[in-house]
Structures are given as structure tokens and as C-alpha cells.
Amino acid sequence: MNYRYLRAYMAGIVVPTAFLLVVLVVFCLARFVFRAPVPIERVIVFPMALIPNLFGAWNMLYVALSPRHRLSIGAHGALLPFALLPLGFTLGVLLGLVRIDQGGLEGFQAVRLSYVHAVFVFPVLVVVYYLVWKYIVGFLNDFLGIG
Length: 147
Prior knowledge:
Radius of gyration: 17 Å
Distance between the termini: 18 Å
Strand order of the largest sheet: 1-2-3
Number of strands: 3
Strand content: 5-15%
Shape: globular
Mean pLDDT: 87
Low-confidence stretches: none
């Protein structure tokens, strides 16, 4: 049997799952050792539940597209923040975790991001996603014979 889409899903979830484990350790150290006022239980739920699954589904979509119609894997991955950021922002606002005011964005009543700095976050995120997808997810797809 050929489990092409299962392999694509598994290759897609490797990077965010490993990265989120590191983030979880940092959040736990910050919250419980250094007594940072960031509510970990509210911050980490969305990324831990949704992002790996979206990476896997996004990689399955890449594999499902015919080679004639698909972009390079880096460009395909760079499109993912265009879905993730609005989804995460909307969910954060609806749950009351993110607030918008005159000075910028405030998250979890602890972290503040001015609009000047926020402008640079999205392009950096797109570049990081491009590189991760081009070099890591692309390598895993080739390794599994699905690229």
C-alpha cells in the first residue's frame, strides 16, 4: 500500500511539533521558575493544537497538487502565514486574549507590541516559513519519496 498522504502529513508536522516542545519548555521555565506573569495555559493551547495539524494538512495539499500546478515547496510554505496569522489573531480577539488600542497590540495583558514593530513581524515570519519549508520540510518530503 502507498500511504503518500499519511507520509506527507507526518513530514509536515515534524518541524512545528519539535519547535513547540522547545517553546513549551521555555514557557514553563518562565512561568514556574522565573515567575513571569504570562498565563501559559492560555498562550500555548492554540499553537499546540492547531499549528502542527495545519502544517501537515498544508504539506498534504502540496503533495496532492500536480507538479505542473504547484509552486516550489518554499513558496508554498511561505503562503501558510497568510492563513495562520489572521486565524490566530481573530481567535485571540474573540477569546479576549489580544487587544488592539492606539499604541499597538496587547496580548494576554502582559505582552505589548507597537504598530511600528508589528509591521516587521509578518515579513520576517514569511521568510522564516519559506526557509523552514524549503530546507526542512522539503528534505523530509524527498527523504520519504513524496517530494
